[in-house]
Each structure stands twice: as C-alpha cells, then as structure tokens.
Inverse folding.
C-alpha cells in the first residue's frame, strides 16, 4: 500500500489532523481532544504551539501569535521575541507541531498531506498555505475547500449508513454553513454521482473572534460604568477579557445566563481592577444579531449564484465551532425549515473530509469523485475599442467547475504588430488594477494584418494552477505558460511592464462573436483576401462555400457559429 495521506484542517482558531483507519477518518487526539489551538507562543527560548501556547495567550499577548490564518498571503511581519516571521512561517510551526505530535503519540510518520482552506481564499492565500506545508517539510498533495471537505465527510456518513436521520437517500442539494473562529463560508453543493460545488462565497473576516470582541466591549463598558479606567487600548487587559468573553460565549450555548466575576484585570497604572456582571443569552444574541445577519446575507447570495431557492436545499450542514450557538440553528431553521439536522462535532467534519480526500488520492476504496469550482473569475486584459481602456475580459468565470478549460478569441489592434501582451488576472472587477495579477507573458507575432485572431486558452486545475496557451491563428505562432502559483513570477512582471512602456504595439482586443460586430469582420476579411490569392480551384470552392455558411451564421447569430468559425479558421490555416 502506498504511504497514507493525512488530512489537515489548518484553522484560524483550531487545527486538526486526521487519517483514514479501517475505512473511517480518525482524528488524532493531539492536545487532548484533537482540536489544537492555532496559537504560537514564546516562553523564554522555547517555542510553544497549541494548547500550551493558548494557555499563555491571555497573560503574554506580546509573545503570542493567534489567528495567523487571517494574514496568510499578506506580507505582514510578525514579531515573536527578537525575531520576525512571515505568516506562513507561523503556520509552518503549527503544521510541524501536528506532525511531531502524531509521531510522539502514535509513532506515525506524517509526510503527505491534504490541507483545507476557506472556499473564498484567493490564489495568494492558497499559495501561502502550500508554502507553509513545504516549510514544515510536508508534501502538500492537494489544497481543498473546507465546505467541500465537510460535505465529503457527511456524505460518507450517509453512504456508510451512520446518518440514521437520513432515510430518504442521497440529498440532491446541500448547503454548507461554516462559521469558525475567524472565517465564514457558505457553499451550495449538488450531489449526484459526483459532488459538485455550485456556488461558494463568504468572508475571511467574520467568525467567532467577532462575537468574542462584542462581549469584550461589553465587559470593558462594565468596568468603565463601575468607575474603572478605560482599558480598551490596553492590550494585556483586552487579551484577558477576550479569553473570559470566549468562555462566557461557550457557556451561553448551553445556559440561559452566564455570571462573570474576574479579579486582577491588569491596568496601565498597575492597580488591577475587577469585573463582575451577568449576561443573558438574549442580550448576547441581540448584540451579535448583526453578525449572524451578515452570514444569512451570504446564504442568500450563494443561493442566487447557484440559481436555486432555499426550498430546493435538502440538507444544511453545520460546520465550525460557532454553529453550536443556538441562534445559528434557529436562524437557519427559519430559512430552511426541516432541511437542517443536528450534526456531530461540527469542528471536526472538515478535517475528517480532508482525510477522506487523502484516501481518494491514494486510491483507497472510497466511492467518491470530487468536483470543485473556481472561487474567482480568471480573465485577460484587453483593449476595449469603444472606451480605449484596458478591461479584464473573463475567460473562466467564477464558479466554473474545475478542472476547467476555456478559450476565447481576441484580435490584434495594428497591422504588423510585433507582439501581444498577455496578463492573467483573478477577480471580478472590469478594471485590471482592482484585480490580482496572477501572471504575465507575451506572444511574438508573425507579420500580419490588423485584427489578426489570437486565441487564448486557460486551463485551471484542482490546485489552482493556471495554464495559458495563446495562438496567433493562421500563423502557428504559439506560446504556452504555466503559472505555478507555488512559484510566482515576481520580478518578471516588472520587466514586462517596462518593455511595454516604450513600445506601443501590444494591443489586443476581444474578438469573440458575442462581443462585438467590430471584432467579427477580420475573419471574413481575411478569408476574402485569401480567396483572391489562392490558385487551386478546389480550395477556392471549399473556402467560398464555408465562408458563405459562416457569414450566414454570423448574420443570424446561429448556434453553429462557433463551430463554423473553428472550421473556417483551421481551413485557412491549411491553405
Ligand atoms: P476555525 O475553523 O476558525 O479554526 P472552529 O471551527 O474550531 O474554528 O471554531 C472555533 C470557534 O468556535 C471559536 O470562536 C470558539 O469560541 C467557537 N466555539 C467552540 N465551541 C463553541 C460553543 N459551544 N458555542 C459557541 N461557540 C463555540
Ligand atoms: Mg474551520
């Protein structure tokens, strides 16, 4: 048997490790229950990770790093003692700790892993996650979306008959609602022979931390109202109160009220204060209602994107520790009625799904295939002939099932143009500057008339790698680039930009039939010129008849236009 692949949920608040054992995903009991706080803390010269680091967080906030996941993909520098770290270094410490503990507790050798990320993570954030894995000495076999992993797990429960409430067989549409410590994700899945993600959206800055922060403000207010100092800017006090707030929040999931009595809250002048108060579940729900409202707004958005109604959802899957808050279930009940069912360990379903994905990769006997969707539109910048601006023209739209291959026809803007610049963007904006530049390249051209067709094809794979092929139609000039998001081009972008400044011949405009009458004629124009030039009669006849059919299709905008266009272009290539 090939070496096993472990699943890792690298969470904002908690991380876990799981592996398939006897056909079932088993969570390793690291730090007790397997939920390892994603916290790193410096204790003298010793670097602590997990529960022991978490225990120090409130008392030594300056030497502790929490919620590093929110910074993944950024260039933020994090200080710990004398040293500074990148976010991926800190994540690597957490991953290394999971690996070492698995070995220490059970003698397991963890090398190959599947790591989960929020569905809404950008390529840069996914790349940083892969880097963290590499820095920890792990081979990251795949990055998968957390909601998808959760669905894999719940579907496996159903298949293996452990989901007793599900007598009616496989659900067709499921909605995954994942409210964790720092991120919120909602995804809509269609289940048939495959699991397909129809839509996924969310917010990487919305989670349990925000609920804790609301309760913390309430405690700071109580101190002020009791004649105490304003401690809202004093980090040691805020850290202490935040830890208390989180405990209170968890109690309120079980009880109607919580009594908080904490002495020795530090103050800047060294005279500690005490906070004592009661908070009811009702009050807590009221002060955080706007946060849950934001999550349900995203639910509506996801339904719109998937093009289905709430009543189409057969099952709502709750994921993330925050979904233990009763108000979450109540709100979802109001939207989905009976579709929602209680779930076991909402904070462990993602890591269990990741272990199942690992087993699928090694070819263990699990009957599931997985489809995913693109989280962002992938486009190419091209000249808008009407406005004269550079626009992002979508090639693979957001929410396209991946792996995906899509192509689109563009055209040069000038006669004898020497090259076209190809800049690949990720994002929904029309203005390229508002999107993320993933990679850039150019295609050197053969001498040709203006409006010469350039076909650009993108492939997008399961790891978020983009492969671009651009071809000058009819001249067999071609370039192929792979934007390995683990290894971005960095400096090359600069030199390309520079190259273009003094050289104004890189124009490219969209030329797909659906886009513009302007972009169409170049094909027919070229075919006519060719028709006049060619000598062989048989060629002439074939081309003339195909051209006629194409022009007709063009005029009527008929369904076979694309096929005819391909046929015509390749015929011209041959001649
Ligand atoms: P993440 O995926 O972000 O790492 P988790 O799914 O582990 O997060 O959820 C962590 C969040 O869930 C924290 O904000 C924690 O306080 C919260 N949480 C855990 N248990 C409960 C509970 N019983 N009631 C309310 N919130 C809870
Ligand atoms: Mg999570």
């Amino acid at each position: 048997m090939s070496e096993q692949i472990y699943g890792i949920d690298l969470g904002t608040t908690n991380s876990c490790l799981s592996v398939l054992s006897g056909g079932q995903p088993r969570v390793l009991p690291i730090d007790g229950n397997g939920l390892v706080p994603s916290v790193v803390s410096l204790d003298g010269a010793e670097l602590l990770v997990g529960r022991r680091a978490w225990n120090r967080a409130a008392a030594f906030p300056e030497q502790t790093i929490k919620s590093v996941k929110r910074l993944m993909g950024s260039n933020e520098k994090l200080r710990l003692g004398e040293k500074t770290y990148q976010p991926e270094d800190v994540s690597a410490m957490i991953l290394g700790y999971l690996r070492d503990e698995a070995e220490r507790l059970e003698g397991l050798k963890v090398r190959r892993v599947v790591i989960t990320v929020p569905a809404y993570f950008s390529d840069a954030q996914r790349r940083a996650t892969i880097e963290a894995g590499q820095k920890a000495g792990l081979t990251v076999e795949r990055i998968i979306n957390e909601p998808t992993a959760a669905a894999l797990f719940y579907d496996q429960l159903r298949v293996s008959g452990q989901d007793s409430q599900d007598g009616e067989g496989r659900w067709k549409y499921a909605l995954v609602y994942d409210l964790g410590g720092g991120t919120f994700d909602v995804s809509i899945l269609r289940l048939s022979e495959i699991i397909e993600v129809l839509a996924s959206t969310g917010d990487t800055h919305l989670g349990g931390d925000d609920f804790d922060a609301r309760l913390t403000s309430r405690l700071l207010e109580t101190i002020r109202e009791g004649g105490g100092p304003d401690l809202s800017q004093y980090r040691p006090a805020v850290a202490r109160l935040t830890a208390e707030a989180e405990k209170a929040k968890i109690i309120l999931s079980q009880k109607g009220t919580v009594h908080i009595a904490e002495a020795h809250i530090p103050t800047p002048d060294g005279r500690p204060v005490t906070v004592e108060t009661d908070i009811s579940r009702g009050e807590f729900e009221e002060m955080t209602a706007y946060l849950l409202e934001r999550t349900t707004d995203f639910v509506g958005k996801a339904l719109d994107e998937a093009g289905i109604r709430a009543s189409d959802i057969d099952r709502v899957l709750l994921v993330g520790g925050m979904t233990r808050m009763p108000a979450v279930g109540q709100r979802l009940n109001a939207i989905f009625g009976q579709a929602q069912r209680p779930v076991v360990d909402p904070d462990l379903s993602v890591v269990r799904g990741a272990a199942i994905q690992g087993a699928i990769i090694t070819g263990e006997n699990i009957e599931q295939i997985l489809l995913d969707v693109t989280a962002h539109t992938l486009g190419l910048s091209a000249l808008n002939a009407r406005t004269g601006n550079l626009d992002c023209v979508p090639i693979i739209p957001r929410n396209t099932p991946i792996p995906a291959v899509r192509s689109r026809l563009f055209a040069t803007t000038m006669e004898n143009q020497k090259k076209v610049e190809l800049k690949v963007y990720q994002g929904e904006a029309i203005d390229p500057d508002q999107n993320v530049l993933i990679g850039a390249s150019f295609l050197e051209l053969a001498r040709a008339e203006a409006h010469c067709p350039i076909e650009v094809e993108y492939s997008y794979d399961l790891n978020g790698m983009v492969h671009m092929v651009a071809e000058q139609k009819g001249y067999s000039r071609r370039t192929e680039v792979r934007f390995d998001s683990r290894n971005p081009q960095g400096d090359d972008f600069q030199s390309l930009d520079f190259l273009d400044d003094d050289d104004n011949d890189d124009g490219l405009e969209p030329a797909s039939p659906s886009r513009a009458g302007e972009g169409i004629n170049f094909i027919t124009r070229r075919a006519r010129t060719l028709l006049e030039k060619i000598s062989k009669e048989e060629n002439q006849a074939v081309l003339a008849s195909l051209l006629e059919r194409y022009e007709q299709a063009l005029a009527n905008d008929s369904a076979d236009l694309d096929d005819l266009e391909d046929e015509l272009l390749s015929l011209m290539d041959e001649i």
